[in-house]
Amino acid sequence: MLTKRIIPCLDIKDGRTVKGTNFLELRDAGDPVELATVYALNGADELVFLDITATHERRKTLSDLVRRIAKSINIPFTVGGGITSVEDVRVLLDNGADKISVNSAAFKRPELISELASEFGSQCVVLAVDIKKNELNQYEVFLNGGRLPTGRECADWITEAVKRGAGEILLTSMDHDGVKNGFAVEITARISNMISVPVIASGGAGTPEHFAEVLQAGADAALAASIFHFKEVELPFLKQYLKEQKLPIR
Amino acid sequence: MNVVVIKYNAGNIQSVQIALERMGIIPVFTDDTDTILQADCVIFPGVGEARSAMHYLQSRSLDKVIPAIQRPFLGICLGMQLMCSHSQENDTQCLGIFQQQVLRFQPTELNEKIPQIGWNSIHTLTSPLFTGVTEGSYCYFVHSYRAELGESTSAVTDYCGKYSAALCRDNFYGVQFHPEKSAEVGEIILSNFISIAS
Fold first, then answer.
1. Which residues, in sequence order, are CB contacts of B53 under 8 Å at separation 6+?
2. pLDDT by residue (tens digit) across A3-21?
3. Tens of pLDDT along B73-111?
4. A123–B19: do the CB atoms touch at under 8 Å?
5. Which sequence spans correspond to the domains of chain B?
6. Would the CB atoms of A193 and B142 count as touching at under 8 Å?
7. Which end of chain B is more exposed for a tag (fewer CB within 10 A), N or C?
8. Domain B3-197: which CATH class?
């Protein structure tokens, strides 16, 4: 039986793991390769690395890091952050990344998704979507790490992206991110039932119960960062708990 | 040990190379037929689309060379599908090493997403590739098409119904999952393949 995936996420800045609350207030959380190795050994099903470095050397630094990660771990990993072209993606895949994730650049130029899917296949194109509930009670897409509202409702954007070839959706609720009160269960379930590709729930994990809740509601995978980095919830314990809840877990 | 990884127009071949390097093996990465025929063993990985991959193989005469290989040969993911007789993906005639047809997944329930992405269990393990691998172990899969069950089936997985997670005939092995990304289980399978070739 296909299992639900637990995915630790590492935000990377200048080659270090960092973690903030609601996309702000960054704290250092260690060496990404060391953390990745520990997560892989402890039963992580996949890893996601999001690079938030803003300097000009970022491409070189990131490809070196991707190479080091690929050499150190034996599970799949996704790399995202600042990807705007087929060339950006080729460099990352050539250095050993299994999938890449695109966000703002794809929203601004949706053809990017089509280009990546036709060049590398949908299976390696993850669309990251950051959402926030607006005054109209709709889940609106935000860009640039949550700073820029787009006015577009998320289901509409996700439907277009899947048609263009996005192979997976990484759905982050910014209202929930970093506050550890549970995932955005309702919207995640709604999106997951609406589309034919897997949905990764992100933002809000605080306890093992939160994971069970969103996975039972229909998410195919659940992603979290700080609770793993700061050892508030350990992976083996979490996976054992989810098995006991009768969820299919590796 | 002279391990050759066949280079063609499919994606994500690097991850196999890196996994072999983790095992201390530096593979040769080539589409040159002589080099391939002289190898101790050959790995045929890849993620991509069947028809354009077959075109590439034909343009290099690899469609004739591959079925004639006598040494241990391992197809991974698309590589395994191309070793079958025919793929429904763009109605593609494949290499015919295995008799199986490759068909697209047909969801039987709403929550079965295509492609299948993630860890699924492998059962009824019947080839030397699985020495030391426990029944029901989990491997990492990413695919939209799958090979039918048949005589050469050497591992079975269930997603939208049962299909061949691995195939085996004489010196030819195929796995639908990615051993290079399947944690310790995948490392056992890759090292079994290397042992078969030693």
1. B8, B9, B10, B46, B78, B82
2. 999 999 999 988 888 876 5
3. 999 999 999 999 999 999 999 999 999 999 999 988 767
4. no
5. 3-197
6. no
7. C
8. alpha beta
